[in-house]
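Quick question about two entries, pasted in order.
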Amino acid sequence: MNKKIRNIILGVAVVVLVAGTVKVIPHLTLKAAQVASVEREGIKEVKGSIDIKKGELLVAESATKELHLDTDTLDIRVADKVSGREWTSKVAAPSNNKDKSILTISYLSGDNKKNEWDAFVDVIEPGNYSIDRIEDGVKLTLYFETSTKKPDQLLPSYIESEYLNSRFYDEIEKKAKEGAITDKQAANYKNILKKVYMKDLTKGGFKIVDAKALPPSAVKQLNEMVQIIGYTEEMVKADNEAAGLDIEIPQIASFKIVVDVTLDGEDLVINVPTSECTSGNDYFELQNIEAYATFGHASSEDVKDGYIMVPDGAGALFELNSYNAAYPQYSRPVYDNTYYDQMYQMPTFKEDIHMPVFGMTYGKDENATHGFMGIIESGAELATVNVRLGTNDISTGGSVNNKVYPSVDVMQYSRVKLMGPYSDNDSRYLASTGKIDMDYTVRYKLFNDSVTYFDMANTYKEYLTEKHGLTQNYVTEPKMYIDMLGALTIPARIAGVPYDKTISMTTYEQAQAIVEELSDMNLVLNYEGAFFGGEKTGLQSKASLVKENGSKKEFDALVQAVEASNDQIFFGTDLMTIKDTSYPFSAKVHGLYNYDSKPVAIYDYDYTTGKYSPEFEPTYRMHPKFFGDIVNRFVKGTEGINNISVGDVPNTYYANYKEEEILTPVQANVMIENGLAQLSENKVLAFNNPNMNTLPYCDYAVNISRESSNYGTMYSSIPFRQLVMNGLVEYTTLNVNMSKESKDYYLLQALEVGSYPKFTISATNQDVLKDSQYREYLSVDYNTLKPEMEALYSEYSEAFNTIGTREIKNHRMLEAGAFETEYANGTKVLVNYNPYPVQVEGRTIDAVGYEIIK
């Protein structure tokens, strides 16, 4: 081999080696963790069986409650021993079979059709269920089966005349002569066969007509006939084969569903262990379960007023008996769990659900007789909160019964457009996770006296405190929360050539100057865009400060100035959001995958077109398997920086739908919570708009809305979310300066529910951002905002010092848009969000005004 050829080969080898190294390095940048195991209670020990169809039995009791089970219908009733109050699933006047059913399932068939099946006809009535005793309750096993098959499952699709006679007519005659059936039955069976089969003029025999032409009664008799004459499914297959037909007999759906119903002290607990729920064959996949949707229902004939509470946004109320045919059912996914299926569609609701709770009162406020609150304590990542309102006039399609209940997706799926989400070609294929094994658990807190939404919020707060070992703490000083814009990346040009330019909207020196100017305020500062290239975050393989914001010396001077003012400063970043897609990030290696088995690419949403707009580069989401290593690296890289603000992880729904690497939302959530727990052990944390499952790991909850989605039949928004957070974390309003609302609207929130007013500011004028993707920063110039900030803080701090505490003792709605907060020291605050004055409690409250009563 000559030297020239050898050098060429060596050069090629080097190129291949380098290319291979570049391809492998992204894999080596971060360590991927094993998929986290999901804790489940496991199968409960059976302590004996209970006969079915024996009426109602007492199956468990605690010091204060009794749990009764109707063995005929599987309805449950909980009775309070002292007050005599009851909560039941049994509907006194059911309007349909679903009202009689304690369970409804949805499932997908092999032809991708979705079907719904309630338990009453095929499970409850025929007794296709069993009841077992377990500790503190019962295990119910329901067998969804139907004995009624369709004609093409019972008979050959084509049959010669002689076989038709010998197989069926002759056998019917034979059974009639033996006395196994009456002459009338024999005549009916023959008539049905004549309707089922018609002459095939091409072949000379007989073929099955459209089965839909037969009434249900005829199909039922056909089922009876084949059973009586002993004509089996194997015979159907044989006769089809004899006729030269290769026909697959349609499958029959069947499912086994297990539900554990127990008393846990004062609480009713309903658990569906999905690992014990099975399908009879692979053709049908269990998709959704509604268990005891009628529990706690209120009939319009018995309960004249009251309300249903849902956690929509901050929280919202529905008045009982206010059914509207234009809004027949409210149904919202918890934690926005349908995001990946619907991400290319315009959102229907303006607020998400951040809390897995719901409730109902029988009567309003102090006039309520009793009520309940449900907490989805396991499986919330796949749950939906549903409301059906009752009415006395059912002529428009409603029911007399008011219901609020959760349901759960046992399998997630999406019908993916083959040619892309916005293609005119509607060809689709089904992608799914398969069945997800978990414990789907709902805990019912039962109130046996007058109950309000505040009681529910306080009960939920106590539940979270006990579950997570939290300490309630009430800060006794006013504070202002300020987001400072740090490093942003904007488009720029050199000699007409476009490139990305990183600029600092507020340098460390400018931030220090602002802190000193506002030294008479108690401030909580969040310096955004501090790490990893600023706001345009890339792969978080190391934690480093952005040089455009200033030197390390200037950084230290800022921190010292904040400490000297007795203020706090957080340094903000996203940990799992990728906006800088350059090396070493690889979407195929590090990114989450959607149902189309492609990395999830999120573009800015254009509300004018109702579509994602590709005007700017997409954002990607990191796979949760990397989160543990990201946290490890971040903690080490930020040693000496104690306060961190996280913008993305606490409010993001994670799952991976890549066909060969499914990561369920339940598994993903375990990995996310583990990482946040580790981060919280090392840092003081502020979270942006956190979901309730991530709240226990932070000290500040930022950007908390006071609104709900204002769905058609809602009658009021309530600050349920803030009432739950009160004492658990410190929390802020949305941005005062980035809203259509006035500063007074946010002042009311600060005084009503103890929120901190919040501004987003920049030392550099926002005009430099006008041609960038940062369109939301239209009014962030600090110099312009300073007078408004000072005026709001002055009025807020004076009012807060009059109130004297943040600990809320009670909260109630006085009338639409007007509320009263009672604080622990007896001080009351009346607020009016209406654009007009109102008369409440004998006082006139100005439009968007307040009054403090010592």
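Here is the second entry:
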Amino acid sequence: MTNTPPADPSAPVTAGSTVSTASAVFLGVRHHSPACARLVARAIETLRPAYVLVEGPADMNARLDELLLEHRLPIAVFSHYRDEARVATSWAPLCEYSPEWIALRQGRASGAQVRFIDLPAWHPAFAERAERYANRYADAEARYARATERLCAHFGVDSVDALWDGLFEVTEPGDDLMTRLDAYFDLVRGDAEADPGDRAREEYMASWVRAALTRAGGRPVLVVTGGFHQPALRALADRDGPADWPEVPAPPEEALGGSFLVPYSFRQLDAFSGYQSGMPSPGYYQRLWEAGPQQAARDLLRSVADRLRARGIPVSTADLIAARGLAQGLTLLRGHPYETRVDVLDGLAGALISDDLDRPLPWTTGGTLGAGTHPVVVEMVAACAGEAEGRLHPDTPLPPLVHDVTERLVRLGLADAEGPVTLDLTSADGLMRSQVLHRLRVLDIPGFTRVSGPADGADPVFTERWQPGRASGREAALIEAGAYGARLDEAASVVLGERARDAGPDVGPLAGLLFDTVLCGVGPLCGELLGALAARVGQIRELGSLGEVLAAALGLWRHDRVFGVARDRLLGSVVADAADRVFWLAEGLHGGPGVDFARLRALAAARDALLHAPELLSLTREAAAEAAGRISRDQRAPSDLRGAAFGLRWALGTPDDPAAAVRALASAPADTLGDWLAGLFAVAREEVVGGAAASGEPLVDVLDGVVSAMTDDDFLIGLPALRQAFAFFPPRERERIAQRLLERRGARGSARSLLRTTADPLLLARAAALEDNVARLLDRYGLGATR
């Protein structure tokens, strides 16, 4: 339902006081403006028009009865379009104070014929806008900002929103609002040439106006559009043209498109949350619409105080008195007849924030709130936004996907889950429930969060745990997801397919996408993805990305017994091609110091393929070991990669002498040893723990000797890389290494306690070096302690 707008003190609108062409009356509005909504209501009451034409998707005209059901606002018209070349989605939100909503409701109540007159949202005219704004009512004048910037400078305000409030929302009784709106929009549009999309839309809207004029029988035709379009429509409607109703474009036969109503919320409508059109702070403007500026200002002050107190931020009565006094003072200083939204917010900020702010207040600049925004500012913005959420009337048609998901959740016992849901993936029922929840996850449907479960195909975990959450927004998300298909499996398949196409030549994301597809169990899409992976493996240029693909495919090929893709032929071809290319890329890789964990994982994945899936590979162990030997001896290769290649030869059973290799690194830069060891441990950790050098001496002993021989300065330089390398060992193996080092020194003590230091070992080493340097300096000048 919509509230009847409160009486406005300004003069009633008449045809003589507006811009008109013949009997067409054009009202240029700002979307979601209470002042413009009141103006539209008065115009309908005064003019009693034959037609009310509204900027909005013309393909919804056959469904206006559905739109005008007794919904709880805000709601939106969600439109979608998809073909082989383009995917587009758009929202046209409506709240109780939207001028378009008032035009539809009040127009029909007055007996007028109401029509939407804009092109459907899927139309190519919206293509450029959809990329930037993703909603129909994005302020076109934002692209012509010079005029509004000049106006802001002239009136001494920081933002277009503050300018708008002072000029239109909070004005003295009797102001000629229509005249000022015309002047404002004429200035904003100016002589600027609209882009091709806007020109096409304006030509189309003008054709509706001309057709309505021929049918109005001498009565007025009221045209309500965004103010940016008003000057152009005024001129275009005066031209000669066809008098028939324009044809409503339909999507091409090969395309899928349509529109549905969805619940919306004030949070989505708020510019500070990223919405790109109309007024910010919808909660404040709802109160302005219902109760006028004075009550809206008082309610905003009270709402901010309540939110801050609820979050433990102290706000005293004296603070509120000071804030109110500052707001009223700013109102007088700025020449406003009543407190505007910005007056109230500035007064609150001045009274409640004593800290220095590192960024401007958001209502002075616009845009979304960034990380680190002052908590008081966050609550002020939230209080302005409000918490209203729309709800569709029960008779509203919904896309088939909503019914499909609802039925599935009920049948599987997931609709009313209150506590954690644990699924046994080895049972048919558990696997089916898991697939449904994963399909909802990839569609971004709220309601369930996966807490635990297998992370990849090689993960020996056969249970999943899901946590039910708030289902707020689920219906809207399902309606929007209905653009992808009528059934849950179909919609998930389309989304995953789009993600695969969007990845383009970047194969890295496909590794995770492959496992998502397996978890969803969407059948044929697995084959498509595997085919795409197999075709693209030979194009991968990054060793790390290649390693992710190889590890994911190999894990599923080897271990999957749950999802049904083990020993899959296409998976095997991915493994084979990826393993070959790992060595091709690694042999040509040169670089400086540092550890790249992604490329180390690639060498480890190649090791696993050679050891556990040799029947898939055209590359033999001998050829792989020879390639690894060349990499390990290439001084231009990164140290971590050389260490990994050395470890790969060891893991393949053709080791070189690790003791000699470690001792050879003693003369290299101090951090080289740690980088090399990181590569070695990443690929051959088990061989290091269980093996010995050619001399029979354990490698840990050799390392201990090399590290002990380092100077203090070299040790400090090399320590971070050494710590990083030994992080590849699990705690129990690190404890055994520590115990061995204690035994070598003939020291007694607990290796476990040695590993559990109370401070960062690097910090301790630096402190010890500093103390030693200080002692030497004191001794040099005879200031040391008497011995």
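Reply: The chain has 34 helices and eleven strands. The two ends are 93 Å apart (CA to CA). Hope that helps.
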